[in-house]
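Methods — Computational structure assignment.
A single polypeptide chain was analysed. Its primary sequence is given first, followed by the predicted tertiary structure written as structure tokens.
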Amino acid sequence: MEVLKQAIEAVPAGRWCVAVSGGADSVALFRLLRERPDSQLHVAHLNHQTRGVESDGDAAFVKMLADQNGVSSTIALLSEILPTVNGRFANDSARYRAARYELFRKVVTKHKLHGVVLAHHRDDQAETVLHRLSRSAPPDGLVGMAPRTVVRSLAILRPLLEVSTESLRAYLKSIGQDWREDASNASDAYARNRLRRWLVERPQASAALTTLARICRELHEWSNSNAAALSETFPAQQMAAMPRIFARQSAKRWLIERGGKPGELSEEVVDRLIQMANDAATASRSNFPGGLQVRRRRGVISVKPRDSRD
């Protein structure tokens, strides 16, 4: 219980949106925050409409939970939110995630809240890191989910990243609070479910992977704060002389400042810019996300819109 208390105390006092799916983790988060006398809550739930009556049952459960605790709520349908979401998505999971964030953003704006609190816990963090490890992600890709971040002006808190799902379920049982189980979580059709089962069989792995995420995040923050800022145009040798860990941070920051979108600047994309600086035999022009064309001329790196003419 002490770890739960410390986790919830990390949430600043104020007015917060709480994302409640109906599962044990989000219900526990809601009940823990509800005990805070210095916080006002508003529950948000997105009915993904993917499991028929079960999805409707989750929505009804969340509405009842909020009502029973005297907390206002917003229950929305995926079909209502998706038309307002812009962008291209690689899969349904990414599309649903974008819809949830759009709902949270609307709720936070409408009710003048500080941001949204999400129930991602230690086991979610371990799954995320393990999944990225399986795809050979570099240290920057192993930072996992941040306890605090901002996405398109939406403040997001994840206070439970050091808390296990067993602790959350034990808390709910201790107060006699039920929750909903999502049957799709048992399906082997989803990679995360297979990873989750692997972790359940190796309980020490979750803590180790969470520690790895924390260390990688600290390394990322250190390298980002110490990486040199690059000017609008810069000598290729300036980047070539940097250690790779700093070069990646400087290159990514430079592309973002020129209009590149962070979500599109993968390790491969950033390394392509570094390669242009390191190897004069590479192509002197290369297209980058955000409509950018990076050029190397006489040892100097510059960037112009792709449709720009010399």
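Note: The chain has two domains: 2-121+144-183, 228-305.
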